[in-house]
Structure formats: C-alpha cells, structure tokens
Amino acid sequence: MSSIHEDLVRSLDSKQAAYVNLELPDPTNGEYLLGAFHLVPGGDLNILQAAAEIAAESSTGTNFKVNTETKFSKTMNALVYQLDLERNLVWVAYPWRLFDRGGNVQNILTYIVGNILGMKEISALKLLDVWFPPAMLEQYDGPGFTVDDMRKYLDVYDRPILGTIVKPKMGLTSAEYAEVCYDFWVGGGDFVKNDEPQANQDFCPYDKMVMHVKEAMDKAVKETGKKKVHSFNVSAADFDTMIERCEMIVNAGFEPGSYAFLIDGITAGWMAVQTIRRRYPNVFLHFHRAAHGAFTRPENPIGFSVLVLSKFARLAGASGIHTGTAGVGKMKGTPEEDVVAAHGIQYLSSSGHFFEQTWTKIMETDKDAIDLVHEDSAHHVILEDDSWRGMKKCCPIVSGGLNPVRLKPFIDVMGNVDFITTMGSGVHAHPEGTNAGAKALVQACDAYLKDVDIAEYAKDHKELAQAIEFFQKT
Ligand SMILES: O=C(COP(=O)(O)O)[C@H](O)[C@H](O)COP(=O)(O)O
Ligand SMILES: [Mg+2]
Q1: In this structure, is residue 373 part of a structural domain?
Q2: What is the dihedral of CA 459, 463, 464, 466, to 10 degrees?
Q3: How far is it, in rounded angstroms, from Cα 218 to Cα 257?
Q4: Residues 130-148: what's their mean pLDDT?
Q5: Domain CATH for 87
Q6: Which residue segment(s) compose the domain that 188 sits in?
C-alpha cells in the first residue's frame, strides 16, 4: 500500500475503518456488487474518510458507530477497496446478500444511489459504473422478449428498426393519432411509439387510442404486406390501472409481437418496470428514461451515468432502453457516455467505464456452456444459444432529435445497426409530412446499407432530397 494510502487509512476513525479495506483480496470473488464512484468530499473529510461515510450510509451504517451492531452485521458492511486520488475515484464492494431476495432492482438502487446522494460530506458523487458477479445475475430477471424476437416478427434484420414517436407530443384526438401512425407505417416505417406522457387524456381516451391504432395497423399491414409494431405507454397512477391498460391492448386483437409496453421507468418507477416484465414476459418492455438527465447529464456532479442506468434496466428486464444519440441528436450526450451504455447492454460481454461485464449466468464449473460462448466479427462476445445461461440482450433505443440526415452519422458513432431508432420531429417535420418523412427515413437507411452517400441517393429519391434540404438547413 502506498504511503499516501497508509496515511489516509490512519486518518480513519474506528467506525470509518470498518468500511474500508484497501487490501480486499478478491473483490470479484462473487460475493460483491462493485461500484466505481467519482467522489469529491464536501466538508472537512478527506476522500477516504468521505468514501467510508458513503460506504457506511449505503450499506449497514450511519453517521455514528452504533452499539447495536453485531459480528454478523459487520460482515454486511460495504467496503471501500480501491482509490484513484488523481481522478477522485473510489471503488466500493457491496456484499450482495444485503439486497432484497427475489431479484429486486429498486432495492439495490435505494442503497447505492439513495441517501448518499444527499449527504453533506460530498460535493460530488456519481456512480459511473457497476459490476454484477455471475452468481448474482442468477437472481435477476433480465429481458424476456428481445429485439431479436421483434426482428423475427418484423422480418427485419441487419438494419436499425425504423421508428417514430407521434408528434405533436400531445393534443391529437385518438383518430388523428392513429392517422399519423398509419401514414408512417405505409411510408415504410416499422415501429411507432406513444410519446412518454401519452396516457388517458380526455381528448384522446386510452381505449379509443388503442382501438384506432389497431384499425390503422391492420390497414397498414394489409396495404404494405409488412408487419408493424406499436409501443403503448402503460405507465399509470397505480398498478391496477397500468395492468388494465396492458389488458386493454392484449384484448384488442393485436397479434403477439405487434405491440410493446412502454414504461416511463424513472417517473413510474422500477417496480412498474419489473411488474410488467414479470406479468408479460413475451412482450417487448420499452424503458423510456424521461427525467434521467437529473442524474446522468455529464455536467451533473451528483447522480449516476447512462451506463449505470442502462445496466440496471437490463437487470430489471427491459427489452430496450433509450441510451441517447451520443450528441448527434438534440440531447446532451457523448459517445463515451451513450455508445458505451449501448454496447454495455446489447452484448453478452462488454467493457464499461471501469468494469468488464459478462452477462452470463454461466458458472465457471459449467464447462459445456463455455464453448457456447464465442466472439462475433466485432470481437463482441455472443452466446450461441441465448438461453437461460445468458442474460438476454437489452436493445439501445436511439431517439432524441435524430432525423434521416443524422442516421448515418449516428450509426458511424454507434458502430452497429442493432438498435431501434425513434425519430419524432425527424419524421413529422418533413416539409411533405409524415408519410414523406417515413419514406425519407427508409431511403436514408437504404442509402446507408448500399454504402451510397445520401446526397447521391437523394438524386432519385425525392423525399430524402426534401429531408436533406430541410434538416440540413436547420
Ligand atoms: O420524443 C422523443 C424524441 O422526439 P424527437 O425525435 O422529436 O426529439 C423522446 O422522448 C426522446 O427521444 C427522449 O430522449 P432520449 O431518447 O435521449 O431518452
Ligand atoms: Mg418523447
């Protein structure tokens, strides 16, 4: 241990010392969930003292050593096990026996990004990356219905699933709403989502919206001969209403695979996410992350990263989560944030900001399973049979502010096409309207797949030419 670290350890009081072990033999021995935090002390404490207070408050402790602790309770203490003083980074190991049994994600978050974000002892505290041991992954659902299942339903492979959000965000009647869906679908789009606040507004009653969407989808499928998908926001005031909305959709005659359930995962909550995952394992669970910016924006010193949010969404069973456009669209974001998050949830094994996460529940002893694991051409680890052994993939959903002109620039940053893109203004602001907007999106995707520059391709694809003219000038 370096002398600086020895000095810091000597500065700990007896309570703090019980939450630090800079010589923890093997943090990856399977007992611990690991977290890497950026931490700047906020008061008189040095970084190790502050980190110890964080470890205490986010596991078994409080601000004073209590007389009621026991020999066993001390074994549940989180432990600060690594420091990087240059970058103000601290690593904490959480005995995952601390967490509620039965695969409860909100319980973990209550510990590791709960009270500690409010403590006086920090002026900056951000959970940048998290690592789950294989034995822990066994306890969590992971996704049920994946984007691969959606691809099979749509018969769409080797390209992004092309989607939109109906705009205006709110204010259309249910019939007007469904008409926009129809225009997009017959323009060649695959996937339409409710916008994240769409619910049971008096001017667009939920039951009528569902019914009109079904009619529009049937018409579009008949005319195009292609399957279509609609993602319904089922977030609601309470679980009964949420389930009622799900059942309304299930009983409206939609083909299995043609609908997804959208949950505003942060404002509706993790229990809503996991309830839907468990009640409807064969429905694509679409995690919209409205309000995530309060925690994840790169300039926010207190919160957690897009990668952390996305990893927990996969653990909870989201089939897809919005992971951002890496700054190509309208939202704040960078490739280091958004693309790392996207790769962190769509592969079986990937490098995060600080941890290599392998999403297999394969135990070392499960030798026959190991040879099912191999690498694809991009050296991403994939599991031959994406069965119980591996936690299924979670699909990046890429949206905010994209348009046909920005599709290729985003793909170039993303490095693959295995995502769903949902463009709102990028379709409905097209000078010739939604149907032309959809055609422009399809044409931009075709140009990409044919490796033709969109300006070239636009020469004999008018909707794309109009989109370039319109979106490039803005
Ligand atoms: O309605 C939209 C996008 O509409 P538009 O395409 O008109 O911007 C989504 O709610 C944002 O994608 C959320 O952002 P993110 O996807 O980053 O979570
Ligand atoms: Mg939206």
Answers
A1: no
A2: 90
A3: 14
A4: 93
A5: 3.30.70.150
A6: 147-347+393-473
Please report which helix (H) or strand (E) contains residue 456, including its range. helix 454-457
Residue linked to tokens 């240059």: 86
| 386 found inside a domain | no
167 is catalytic: yes
| Residue in 227, 228, 286, 288 annotated catalytic | 288
Domain shared by 123 and 187, yes or no: no
Inform me whether the pLDDT recorded for 394 exceeds 50: yes
pLDDT tens column, 151-197: 999 999 999 999 999 999 999 999 999 999 999 999 999 999 999 99
Ligand 2: distance of its center to the CA of 170 in Å?
10
Determine contact, residues 187/439, Cβ cutoff 8 Å: yes
Q: Do 209 and 227 have their domain in common?
A: yes
Tokens 């949206």 found at: 399
Residue nearest (by alpha carbon) to ligand 1 atom 13: 400
pLDDT digits (tens, 9 = 90+) for 85-125: 999 999 999 999 999 999 999 999 999 999 999 999 999 99
pLDDT confidence tier of residue 329, bands split at 50, 70 and 90: confident
Q: Are 220 and 178 in contact (CB under 8 A)?
A: no
User: Total structural domains in the chain?
Assistant: 2
Judged on CB neighbours under 10 Å (0-12, 13-18, 19+), 395 is buried
Q: Where are the alpha helices (DSSP H) in 29-142?
A: 47-57, 71-75, 105-112, 134-137
Residue 245 token pair: 């909305």
Told to judge if 343 belongs to the known catalytic residues of this protein, a careful annotator would answer: no
Judge if 462 and 335 occupy the same domain. Answer: yes
Q: Which two tokens stand for residue 451?
A: 């490796």
The first and second tokens of residue 315, run together, are 């653990």
Q: How many CB atoms lie within 10 A of CB 116?
A: 22
Pocket lining: 56 vs ligand 1, CB cutoff 6 Å:
no
* Pairing state between β 79-84 and 161-165: unpaired
Q: Is residue 336 part of a domain?
A: yes
Q: Ligand 1 within 6 A of 424 CB?
A: yes
Q: pLDDT band at 473, cuts 50/70/90?
A: confident
Report yes or no on 111 lying in a domain.
yes
Instruction: Say whether both 129 and 154 belong to one domain.
Output: no
- For residue 387, the model assigns a pLDDT of 46
Closest CA to 144 of 26, 273, 310, 40: 273
State pTM to two decimals: 0.94
CATH number of the CATH domain containing 237? 3.20.20.110
